[in-house]
Amino acid sequence: MLAASVIGWQLAATRTGGALAVLRSRDGERPTRLEVVFLGRDGRRQGDSLSLADAPAAQAELELAVLGDNLLVAWAETKVVEPEIHLSVIGPGRQLL
């Protein structure tokens, strides 16, 4: 199993396999964490996932894109009336830029 307790996800192909962005929930409703799982060309998990945010206000909408050697992950959080859009950039060494 790649991920459990997921309420939102996006998958993108990369040069080395793929990346799966997942929004996790402990109770099946409220999001608790946003992370990226890295996959090899065989579809199996490669190493540890990268936690992007503890996201109690995140919506199940998220986007994942490949831009050159980097991954872009965008998501919306609604802490007040208007949603805020957040963006994380992950470099080729799986570090946040």
Q: Which word captures the global form? A: globular
Secondary-structure content class: mainly beta
User: What percent strand?
Assistant: over 45%
Strand order of the largest sheet: 1-2-3-4
Number of helices: 0
Poorly predicted segments: none
Strand count, sense and barrel status of the largest sheet are: 4 strands, antiparallel
Q: What do the pLDDT scores average to? A: 88
Distance between the termini: 28 Å
Q: What Rg is obtained from the alpha carbons, in whole angstroms? A: 13 Å
Description:
The chain has 97 residues and is an all-beta fold. It has strands spanning 6-14, 17-25, 31-39, 50-53, 58-67, 70-77, 84-90. It has a four-stranded antiparallel beta sheet, with no helix packed on it.
Keywords:
globular, four-stranded antiparallel sheet, 97 residues, three-stranded antiparallel sheet, mainly beta, 0% helix
